[in-house]
């Protein structure tokens, strides 16, 4: 039978991984999607990358929520395969010595990773 163990949290800077650390700057652009009407979808955008206006930008999209779900599933799959699943290899095609097997899936801080490696993956 399961029993609850006593736990005392001394420090939890991530708030249970529910927030980014305070040292992380906010994103330049935030895009959200809402249902619009019976079978439509609307994009809402805000952030410092957009010119300052007294209102949030909203635009109805000429697509359905189902089509957006299919495209986002494809994007998540590509992101996982092309970036998160990247395993650094040496010149002989073996796992690179001194590096984690899958650094973009296991490391929290990527500043120590070669910029040209991850930049090339994000641009392709």
Structure commentary:
This protein is α+β, with helices and mostly antiparallel strands and 124 residues long. It is built from three helices and three strands; from the N terminus they run βββααα. A three-stranded antiparallel beta sheet has the order 1-2-3, with no helix packed on it. A hairpin with a 3-residue loop joins strand 1 (30-36) and strand 2 (40-46). It is extended, with a radius of gyration of 21 Å.
Would you summarize the structure shown here?
27% of the residues lie in helices and 15% in strands. With 124 residues, it is of the alpha+beta class. The N and C termini lie far apart (51 Å).
Features:
124 residues, alpha+beta, three-stranded antiparallel beta sheet, 15% strand, extended
Chain-wise SSE layout:
Layout: E1 30-36, E2 40-46, E3 57-61, H1 65-84, H2 103-106, H3 115-123
Antiparallel strand pairs: 1-2, 2-3
Portion in helices: 25-40%
Q: Please tell me how large the radius of gyration is.
A: 21 Å
β-strand number? 3
- Beta-strand portion reads 15-25%
Largest sheet: 3 strands, antiparallel
Q: Which sequence of strands runs across the widest sheet?
A: 1-2-3
Q: Which stretches are poorly predicted, pLDDT < 50 over at least 5 residues?
A: none
Instruction: Give the topology string: H per helix, E per strand.
Output: EEEHHH
Helix tally?
3
Residue-averaged pLDDT, rounded?
A: 81
Distance between the termini: 51 Å
| Envelope shape | extended
The assigned structural class equals alpha+beta
């Amino acid at each position: 039978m399961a029993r609850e163990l006593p736990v005392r949290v001394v420090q939890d800077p991530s708030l249970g991984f529910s927030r980014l650390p305070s040292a992380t700057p906010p994103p330049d652009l935030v895009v959200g999607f809402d249902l619009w009407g019976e079978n439509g979808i609307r994009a809402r955008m805000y952030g410092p990358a957009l010119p300052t206006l007294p209102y949030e930008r909203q635009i109805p999209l000429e697509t359905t929520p189902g089509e957006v779900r299919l495209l986002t599933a494809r994007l998540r799959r590509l992101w996982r395969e092309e970036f998160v699943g990247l395993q650094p290899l040496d010149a002989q095609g073996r796992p690179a010595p001194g590096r984690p097997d899958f650094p973009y899936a296991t490391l929290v801080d990527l500043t120590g990773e070669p910029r040209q490696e991850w930049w090339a993956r994000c641009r392709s």
